[in-house]
Amino acid sequence: MAPKKSRATLETGSPSVGEPEYLVVGFLRRPHGVKGEVLMDIHTDFPDRLKTGKTVFVGGEYQPMIIASLRPHGAGMLVRFRGVKNPEEAGLYRNTWVYVPTADRPALPEGEYYHHQLIGLNVISDEGRELGTLVDILETGANEVYVVRDADGNEVLLPAIPPVILETSLADRQIRVHLLDGLI
């Protein structure tokens, strides 16, 4: 799931330092039909939280919109918002992101984290060497790969597997890792 870029807590009112205020759940493509529906790509691992009557936030201004109807369509969903009655009105929301508040995210099991919680954490080796900051997470077929960038712009790729990722502390804003031979 792709989070909105984080800003300082004072700017966003986010629940904690480094937390985005909103999380992306979809992207509105184009109107569909004559009743005001819009084709939406799903960008969440929890699409079941999108339901009729749910308030979501649309576009860069986070306009609150209530889902009036929602139904599967191909790989996405057809969504209609309360008050949107025709394709012309629906077209006003073409190519915009749909968000939910971070506070509404489902809880994860112990030891699992959302990507937006990890991006920006400092990464240190089990020998105390500062490796840099986690800047991206690549999803591969086998496991995720953490992209860590140091102050000089050098990057190291770390497989997110138990022998490498030793400890993640959101409170300390750091990830402790063990470097396998050949990683650096």
Shape: elongated
Question: What's the oligomerization state?
Answer: single chain
Radius of gyration: 19 Å
Q: What structural class do helix, strand and pairing data support?
A: mainly beta
CATH architecture grouping of the largest domain: Beta Barrel
Number of continuous helical runs: 3
* Largest sheet geometry: 6 strands, antiparallel, barrel
Characterise the protein shown here.
By secondary structure, this protein is mostly beta strands. It folds into two domains: 9-104, Elongation Factor Tu (Ef-tu), domain 3; 115-177, SH3 type barrels, CATH 2.30.30.240. Helix content is 7%, strand content 42%. The protein has three helices and twelve strands; from the N terminus they run αβββββαβαββββββ. A six-stranded antiparallel beta barrel has the order 1-2-5-4-3-6. Strands 10-9-8-7-12-11 form a six-stranded mixed beta sheet, with no helix packed on it. The radius of gyration is 19 Å and the shape is elongated. The model is unreliable at 1-17 (pLDDT under 50).
